[in-house]
Amino acid sequence: MGGGIAMNFANVGIPVTLVETTAEALERGLGIIRKNYEATAAKGKMKAEDVDTRMGLIHGTLAIGDLADVDLVIEAVFEQLDVKQEIFRKLDAICKAGAMLATNTSYLDIDDIAGVTKRPEWVLGLHFFSPANVMKLLEVVRTKHTLPQVYATAMKLAKVIGKIGVLCGNGFGFVGNRILAARGGQADQLILDGATPWAVDKVLYEFGFAMGHFQMRDLVGLDVGWNRATTASSNVREILNEMGRHGQKTRSGFYDYDEKRVGTPSAVAMQVIEDFATKQGITRRDITEEEIHDRILFAMVNEGARILDEGIAARANTIGGR
Fold it and tell me: Nearest 5°: phi and psi at 252?
């Protein structure tokens, strides 16, 4: 995610400092960025010489102190509040006055993150969607303390880096992921009730989504938000993670993947689903495409209405359009 975010800035000529915790991780991250650029050049979508130009704008470092003079920091570590809070304590001590401190959190309360700093008015959410260098949506999340000029600058920045900036309030999942959570709740129940992940994905794809729900989960990583220390086999996703099936990056999740990340339905995942349904006392049955369509899409529409009613989104087109 951090590498994908960095690419957005390098793509428009803005220098980026990419901070990692180990040399191995930094080398791997920079290598993935270069590989992405080289793949784009191979398709004729950018000049070969532009690969080195853009890579030259990305400075990798292990020293967080190198962020002392930057105008904007975007934190993109995994979804664990105490880890993010510790990073923001360090940023608060290091970064210059007037620097914007942003978190890329998907679900965590940004006020809880901002609260560990002495400058909560300069903290906001910049929630990119995966893959960050491709997806156009960027949620600009204001907290109860964020200064208007801070989120106004962020909205302008979204245009500069080619994103569709959506201003929203601070609440669980903001707008996009809160609606996805409602979709996910129905999708998870449907596969226990009798549908297969690929049947659910087929309905969503044919409706018009770029990919299905379980395909998306595998792409993002099933381990996002999962904690190995507290996992308790309490749902199908936890069990798959406990088996080391984290999605495309491990070539196994709800689907199995070949070396080109092409997915096929997984008998292993299906067995996990059936076994868990039995454990929960659920008798699986045939689920029609119409039922899949209605249960998932109506859940999304209803959640959108709640978001609007609660003021997390200011207007309907924040939720459903541009």
Answer: -165, 135
CA contacts within 13 A on the Cβ side of 175 = 30
**Phi, psi for 166 (deg, rounded to 5):** -125, 120
This prediction's pTM: 0.83
Residue-wise burial string across 61-77, b where 16 or more C-beta atoms lie within 10 A, e elsewhere:
eeebeebeebebbbbbe
Q: Both tokens of residue 95?
A: 């970064």
- pLDDT band for position 149 (cuts 50, 70, 90): very high
pLDDT in tens, 153-212: 999 999 999 999 999 999 999 999 999 999 999 999 999 999 999 999 999 999 999 999
Long-range contacts of 27-33 (CB under 8 A, 24+ apart): 27/60, 29/2, 29/3, 29/60, 30/3, 30/55, 30/58, 30/60, 32/3, 33/3, 33/6, 33/7, 33/58
Omega cis (within 30) before 148: no
